[in-house]
Amino acid sequence: MSSKVTIHEVARMSGVSIKTVSRVLNREPNVKNDTRTRVQEAVAALNYRPNISARSLAGSKAYLIGVFFDNPSPAYVTDVQLGAIARCREEGYHLIVEPLDSTGDVAAQVEPMLHTLRMDGVILTPPVCDNVAVLDVLEAEGVPYVRLSPDQDLDRSAHVRMDDVRAAYEMTAHLISLGHTDIGFIKGHPEHGASHLRYEGYVAAMKEHGHAVREEHVEQGWFSFRSGFEAAERLLERADRPTAIFASNDDMALGVMAVANRLRLEVPQTLSVAGFDDTPGAKVVWPQLTTVRQPIQAMAAAAADLLLNGAIRAEGDAPPSRLLDFELVLRESTGPVPPTA
Protein backbone atom coordinates (compact mmCIF):
# COMPACT_ATOMS: atom_id res chain seq x y z
CA MET A 1 0.00 0.00 0.00
CA SER A 2 2.78 2.44 0.88
CA SER A 3 4.09 2.50 -2.73
CA LYS A 4 0.72 3.75 -4.02
CA VAL A 5 0.01 6.38 -1.39
CA THR A 6 0.78 9.94 -2.50
CA ILE A 7 1.23 13.22 -0.69
CA HIS A 8 -2.11 14.32 -2.14
CA GLU A 9 -3.91 11.61 -0.17
CA VAL A 10 -2.14 12.66 3.03
CA ALA A 11 -3.23 16.25 2.40
CA ARG A 12 -6.87 15.23 1.80
CA MET A 13 -7.04 13.05 4.92
CA SER A 14 -5.49 15.72 7.17
CA GLY A 15 -7.46 18.58 5.59
CA VAL A 16 -4.45 20.72 4.71
CA SER A 17 -2.54 21.77 1.61
CA ILE A 18 0.22 19.73 0.00
CA LYS A 19 2.67 22.47 0.96
CA THR A 20 1.71 22.11 4.63
CA VAL A 21 2.23 18.35 4.47
CA SER A 22 5.64 18.95 2.95
CA ARG A 23 6.55 21.39 5.73
CA VAL A 24 5.56 18.86 8.38
CA LEU A 25 7.52 16.06 6.69
CA ASN A 26 10.58 18.30 6.45
CA ARG A 27 10.36 19.26 10.15
CA GLU A 28 10.02 22.92 9.26
CA PRO A 29 8.98 25.41 11.97
CA ASN A 30 5.88 27.62 12.08
CA VAL A 31 3.34 24.80 11.77
CA LYS A 32 0.61 24.72 14.41
CA ASN A 33 0.83 21.78 16.79
CA ASP A 34 -2.68 20.52 16.02
CA THR A 35 -1.99 20.74 12.28
CA ARG A 36 1.30 18.89 12.65
CA THR A 37 -0.46 16.19 14.69
CA ARG A 38 -3.21 15.73 12.05
CA VAL A 39 -0.63 15.35 9.29
CA GLN A 40 1.46 12.89 11.29
CA GLU A 41 -1.64 10.82 12.09
CA ALA A 42 -2.58 10.75 8.40
CA VAL A 43 0.95 9.69 7.45
CA ALA A 44 0.79 6.85 9.98
CA ALA A 45 -2.71 5.76 8.97
CA LEU A 46 -1.85 5.66 5.27
CA ASN A 47 1.64 4.22 5.87
CA TYR A 48 2.99 6.99 3.66
CA ARG A 49 6.75 6.98 2.99
CA PRO A 50 8.20 10.09 1.34
CA ASN A 51 10.75 9.56 -1.44
CA ILE A 52 14.10 10.95 -0.35
CA SER A 53 15.12 11.81 -3.92
CA ALA A 54 11.94 13.75 -4.50
CA ARG A 55 12.35 15.56 -1.20
CA SER A 56 15.91 16.63 -2.02
CA LEU A 57 14.92 17.80 -5.52
CA ALA A 58 12.05 19.83 -4.12
CA GLY A 59 14.19 21.76 -1.67
CA SER A 60 17.71 22.61 -0.63
CA LYS A 61 18.18 19.60 1.64
CA ALA A 62 19.60 16.27 0.55
CA TYR A 63 18.52 14.53 3.79
CA LEU A 64 21.99 13.00 4.08
CA ILE A 65 24.36 13.19 7.04
CA GLY A 66 27.93 11.99 6.58
CA VAL A 67 30.38 10.37 8.98
CA PHE A 68 34.07 10.67 8.13
CA PHE A 69 36.40 8.29 9.97
CA ASP A 70 39.95 6.98 10.03
CA ASN A 71 39.97 4.69 13.05
CA PRO A 72 41.56 1.22 13.38
CA SER A 73 38.92 0.03 15.87
CA PRO A 74 35.95 -1.58 14.08
CA ALA A 75 33.91 -1.60 17.30
CA TYR A 76 34.30 2.16 17.71
CA VAL A 77 33.22 2.88 14.13
CA THR A 78 30.23 0.53 14.46
CA ASP A 79 29.04 2.26 17.63
CA VAL A 80 29.34 5.66 15.95
CA GLN A 81 27.22 4.42 13.06
CA LEU A 82 24.54 2.93 15.32
CA GLY A 83 24.23 6.08 17.41
CA ALA A 84 24.11 8.46 14.46
CA ILE A 85 21.69 6.29 12.43
CA ALA A 86 19.21 6.10 15.29
CA ARG A 87 19.02 9.89 15.61
CA CYS A 88 18.98 10.51 11.85
CA ARG A 89 16.09 8.11 11.31
CA GLU A 90 13.99 10.02 13.82
CA GLU A 91 14.20 13.05 11.53
CA GLY A 92 13.92 11.23 8.20
CA TYR A 93 17.63 11.53 7.30
CA HIS A 94 19.98 8.90 5.94
CA LEU A 95 23.59 8.29 7.00
CA ILE A 96 26.59 7.92 4.72
CA VAL A 97 29.83 6.58 6.24
CA GLU A 98 33.05 7.40 4.43
CA PRO A 99 36.60 6.29 5.37
CA LEU A 100 39.46 8.75 4.97
CA ASP A 101 43.21 8.15 4.84
CA SER A 102 44.66 10.77 7.15
CA THR A 103 48.16 10.01 5.88
CA GLY A 104 47.20 11.13 2.37
CA ASP A 105 45.77 14.29 0.81
CA VAL A 106 42.54 14.50 2.80
CA ALA A 107 41.32 17.63 1.02
CA ALA A 108 41.46 15.76 -2.29
CA GLN A 109 39.44 12.93 -0.69
CA VAL A 110 36.79 15.15 0.90
CA GLU A 111 36.02 17.67 -1.87
CA PRO A 112 34.63 15.16 -4.44
CA MET A 113 32.38 13.58 -1.80
CA LEU A 114 30.91 16.93 -0.83
CA HIS A 115 30.23 17.84 -4.46
CA THR A 116 28.74 14.46 -5.36
CA LEU A 117 26.66 13.64 -2.29
CA ARG A 118 25.36 17.07 -1.24
CA MET A 119 25.49 16.19 2.44
CA ASP A 120 23.56 18.44 4.84
CA GLY A 121 26.21 17.99 7.52
CA VAL A 122 29.12 15.83 8.60
CA ILE A 123 30.19 14.12 11.83
CA LEU A 124 33.96 13.92 12.21
CA THR A 125 35.53 11.19 14.36
CA PRO A 126 39.12 11.11 15.71
CA PRO A 127 41.66 11.79 14.29
CA VAL A 128 39.80 13.37 11.36
CA CYS A 129 38.12 15.77 13.79
CA ASP A 130 41.45 17.54 14.41
CA ASN A 131 42.63 17.54 10.79
CA VAL A 132 42.82 21.21 9.83
CA ALA A 133 42.70 20.43 6.09
CA VAL A 134 39.35 18.66 6.51
CA LEU A 135 37.91 21.51 8.59
CA ASP A 136 39.09 24.08 6.05
CA VAL A 137 37.42 22.22 3.16
CA LEU A 138 34.11 21.83 5.00
CA GLU A 139 34.05 25.50 5.92
CA ALA A 140 34.98 26.59 2.40
CA GLU A 141 32.11 24.47 1.01
CA GLY A 142 29.69 25.74 3.65
CA VAL A 143 28.97 22.26 5.04
CA PRO A 144 28.10 22.20 8.77
CA TYR A 145 30.06 19.74 10.88
CA VAL A 146 30.25 18.45 14.43
CA ARG A 147 33.38 16.91 15.90
CA LEU A 148 33.53 13.89 18.19
CA SER A 149 36.21 14.05 20.92
CA PRO A 150 38.36 16.85 19.45
CA ASP A 151 41.60 17.77 21.17
CA GLN A 152 42.42 21.05 19.44
CA ASP A 153 40.74 24.41 18.83
CA LEU A 154 37.50 23.57 20.65
CA ASP A 155 36.10 27.03 19.91
CA ARG A 156 36.22 26.40 16.17
CA SER A 157 33.08 24.27 15.89
CA ALA A 158 30.32 22.36 17.60
CA HIS A 159 31.59 19.23 19.32
CA VAL A 160 30.69 16.33 21.60
CA ARG A 161 33.13 14.79 24.04
CA MET A 162 33.64 13.13 27.40
CA ASP A 163 36.24 13.82 30.09
CA ASP A 164 39.00 11.42 28.99
CA VAL A 165 41.46 12.84 31.52
CA ARG A 166 39.14 12.22 34.44
CA ALA A 167 38.14 8.78 33.19
CA ALA A 168 41.76 7.62 32.88
CA TYR A 169 42.56 9.17 36.26
CA GLU A 170 39.76 7.22 37.95
CA MET A 171 40.73 3.92 36.32
CA THR A 172 44.35 4.37 37.39
CA ALA A 173 43.22 5.31 40.90
CA HIS A 174 41.14 2.12 41.02
CA LEU A 175 44.19 0.02 40.17
CA ILE A 176 46.17 1.86 42.85
CA SER A 177 43.38 1.15 45.37
CA LEU A 178 43.95 -2.56 44.68
CA GLY A 179 47.57 -2.16 45.80
CA HIS A 180 49.25 -1.76 42.40
CA THR A 181 52.12 0.69 42.24
CA ASP A 182 53.89 -0.60 39.11
CA ILE A 183 51.18 0.09 36.55
CA GLY A 184 52.08 -0.16 32.90
CA PHE A 185 50.34 2.04 30.35
CA ILE A 186 49.79 1.59 26.62
CA LYS A 187 49.18 4.82 24.77
CA GLY A 188 46.71 5.11 21.93
CA HIS A 189 47.24 6.34 18.37
CA PRO A 190 49.48 9.42 18.61
CA GLU A 191 47.28 11.39 16.18
CA HIS A 192 44.14 10.89 18.30
CA GLY A 193 43.56 13.66 20.83
CA ALA A 194 42.03 11.23 23.32
CA SER A 195 45.34 9.31 23.48
CA HIS A 196 47.14 12.27 25.01
CA LEU A 197 44.26 13.04 27.38
CA ARG A 198 44.11 9.48 28.69
CA TYR A 199 47.85 9.39 29.25
CA GLU A 200 47.55 12.72 31.07
CA GLY A 201 44.95 11.23 33.41
CA TYR A 202 47.13 8.18 34.09
CA VAL A 203 50.16 10.35 34.91
CA ALA A 204 48.12 12.65 37.15
CA ALA A 205 46.74 9.75 39.20
CA MET A 206 50.15 8.10 39.60
CA LYS A 207 51.78 11.33 40.75
CA GLU A 208 48.93 12.37 43.02
CA HIS A 209 49.14 9.01 44.81
CA GLY A 210 52.90 9.27 45.21
CA HIS A 211 53.96 6.73 42.57
CA ALA A 212 56.57 7.28 39.91
CA VAL A 213 55.70 6.94 36.23
CA ARG A 214 58.38 4.60 34.96
CA GLU A 215 59.27 5.34 31.35
CA GLU A 216 60.07 1.68 30.69
CA HIS A 217 56.51 0.79 31.72
CA VAL A 218 54.90 3.08 29.12
CA GLU A 219 54.51 1.77 25.57
CA GLN A 220 53.17 3.27 22.36
CA GLY A 221 50.14 1.60 20.80
CA TRP A 222 47.89 2.39 17.83
CA PHE A 223 44.41 1.48 19.12
CA SER A 224 44.64 -1.95 17.45
CA PHE A 225 44.78 -5.47 18.86
CA ARG A 226 48.14 -6.08 17.18
CA SER A 227 49.73 -2.97 18.67
CA GLY A 228 48.45 -3.91 22.13
CA PHE A 229 49.82 -7.43 21.70
CA GLU A 230 53.25 -6.15 20.71
CA ALA A 231 53.36 -3.56 23.50
CA ALA A 232 52.39 -6.23 26.03
CA GLU A 233 55.18 -8.50 24.81
CA ARG A 234 57.69 -5.75 25.56
CA LEU A 235 56.19 -5.03 28.97
CA LEU A 236 55.62 -8.58 30.17
CA GLU A 237 58.89 -10.11 29.05
CA ARG A 238 60.77 -7.70 31.33
CA ALA A 239 62.19 -9.06 34.57
CA ASP A 240 60.55 -6.14 36.40
CA ARG A 241 57.22 -6.37 34.60
CA PRO A 242 54.29 -4.30 35.94
CA THR A 243 51.62 -5.97 38.07
CA ALA A 244 48.85 -4.14 36.16
CA ILE A 245 48.50 -2.76 32.64
CA PHE A 246 46.05 -0.04 31.64
CA ALA A 247 45.56 0.06 27.87
CA SER A 248 44.05 3.14 26.20
CA ASN A 249 41.34 1.12 24.48
CA ASP A 250 39.77 -2.32 24.71
CA ASP A 251 41.30 -3.68 21.51
CA MET A 252 44.79 -3.14 22.93
CA ALA A 253 43.74 -4.52 26.33
CA LEU A 254 42.57 -7.71 24.61
CA GLY A 255 46.01 -7.91 23.02
CA VAL A 256 47.53 -7.69 26.51
CA MET A 257 45.35 -10.55 27.73
CA ALA A 258 46.38 -12.69 24.76
CA VAL A 259 50.06 -12.23 25.62
CA ALA A 260 49.38 -12.94 29.29
CA ASN A 261 47.73 -16.20 28.26
CA ARG A 262 50.69 -17.14 26.05
CA LEU A 263 53.11 -16.44 28.91
CA ARG A 264 50.86 -18.36 31.35
CA LEU A 265 50.30 -15.28 33.50
CA GLU A 266 46.94 -15.63 35.22
CA VAL A 267 44.59 -12.64 34.97
CA PRO A 268 43.96 -11.14 37.47
CA GLN A 269 45.86 -13.31 39.97
CA THR A 270 49.26 -12.42 38.49
CA LEU A 271 48.42 -9.51 36.19
CA SER A 272 45.54 -7.06 36.23
CA VAL A 273 44.38 -5.64 32.88
CA ALA A 274 42.12 -2.64 32.23
CA GLY A 275 40.88 -1.10 29.01
CA PHE A 276 38.86 1.83 27.74
CA ASP A 277 35.59 2.07 25.70
CA ASP A 278 33.57 -1.01 26.83
CA THR A 279 33.28 -2.50 23.37
CA PRO A 280 31.54 -5.89 22.85
CA GLY A 281 34.88 -7.70 23.08
CA ALA A 282 35.23 -6.62 26.71
CA LYS A 283 32.31 -8.86 27.64
CA VAL A 284 33.07 -11.95 25.54
CA VAL A 285 36.68 -12.44 26.67
CA TRP A 286 37.41 -14.37 29.85
CA PRO A 287 37.97 -13.04 32.38
CA GLN A 288 35.71 -10.18 31.34
CA LEU A 289 37.53 -6.88 30.96
CA THR A 290 37.49 -4.06 33.48
CA THR A 291 37.15 -0.89 31.41
CA VAL A 292 35.86 2.65 31.07
CA ARG A 293 32.46 2.79 29.40
CA GLN A 294 32.68 5.55 26.84
CA PRO A 295 29.15 6.39 25.61
CA ILE A 296 30.13 6.20 21.94
CA GLN A 297 26.64 5.63 20.58
CA ALA A 298 25.20 8.41 22.72
CA MET A 299 27.99 10.75 21.65
CA ALA A 300 27.31 10.04 17.98
CA ALA A 301 23.59 10.55 18.50
CA ALA A 302 24.30 13.86 20.23
CA ALA A 303 26.52 14.94 17.33
CA ALA A 304 23.74 14.10 14.86
CA ASP A 305 21.28 15.99 17.02
CA LEU A 306 23.47 19.10 16.95
CA LEU A 307 23.61 18.90 13.16
CA LEU A 308 19.89 18.34 12.79
CA ASN A 309 19.20 21.30 15.06
CA GLY A 310 21.48 23.62 13.14
CA ALA A 311 24.78 23.41 15.06
CA ILE A 312 24.94 27.19 14.73
CA ARG A 313 25.90 29.97 17.12
CA ALA A 314 25.35 33.67 17.36
CA GLU A 315 28.33 35.83 16.62
CA GLY A 316 30.60 36.04 19.64
CA ASP A 317 29.08 32.97 21.33
CA ALA A 318 30.92 29.73 22.01
CA PRO A 319 29.97 26.89 19.64
CA PRO A 320 27.38 24.43 20.93
CA SER A 321 28.90 21.45 22.72
CA ARG A 322 27.90 18.52 24.88
CA LEU A 323 29.89 16.74 27.58
CA LEU A 324 28.69 13.19 28.27
CA ASP A 325 29.38 11.08 31.34
CA PHE A 326 31.57 7.99 31.52
CA GLU A 327 31.40 4.99 33.82
CA LEU A 328 33.99 2.66 35.32
CA VAL A 329 32.91 -0.92 34.60
CA LEU A 330 34.65 -3.19 37.10
CA ARG A 331 34.82 -6.80 35.96
CA GLU A 332 37.04 -9.84 36.58
CA SER A 333 40.26 -8.78 34.81
CA THR A 334 41.47 -6.64 37.72
CA GLY A 335 42.25 -7.73 41.25
CA PRO A 336 44.55 -7.13 44.21
CA VAL A 337 48.28 -6.92 43.65
CA PRO A 338 49.96 -10.36 43.92
CA PRO A 339 51.39 -11.03 47.41
CA THR A 340 54.93 -11.53 46.06
CA ALA A 341 54.96 -8.27 44.04
What does this protein structure show overall?
By secondary structure, the protein is of the alpha/beta class. It folds into three domains: 44 residues, 434 Repressor (Amino-terminal Domain) (Orthogonal Bundle), CATH 1.10.260; 127 residues, Response regulator (Rossmann fold, 3-Layer(aba) Sandwich), CATH 3.40.50; 131 residues, Rossmann fold (3-Layer(aba) Sandwich). Helix 6 runs parallel beside helix 7, helix 8 runs parallel beside helix 9 and helix 10 packs across helix 11. 43% of the residues lie in helices and 15% in strands. The termini are far apart.
Attribute tags:
341 residues; alpha/beta; 434 Repressor (Amino-terminal Domain); Rossmann fold; six-stranded parallel β-sheet; four-stranded parallel β-sheet; 13 helices
Uncertain residue segments: 53-58
Mean pLDDT: 89
Count of DSSP strands: 12
The tally of domains stands at 3
What's the name of the CATH homologous superfamily of the largest domain? Response regulator
Major sheet characteristics: 6 strands, parallel
Q: What percent strand? A: 5-15%
Return the structural class. alpha/beta
What would you call the shape? elongated
Could you give the order of strands across the largest sheet?
A: 2-1-3-4-5-11
- CATH fold-level topology of the largest domain: Rossmann fold
Percentage of helical residues? 40-55%
H/E topology pattern: HHHHEHEHEHEEHEHEHEHEHEHEE
| CATH level-1 class of the largest domain | Alpha Beta
Termini gap: 71 Å
CATH architecture heading of the largest domain: 3-Layer(aba) Sandwich
User: In terms of quaternary structure, what is this?
Assistant: single chain
Indicate the radius of gyration in whole angstroms: 24 Å
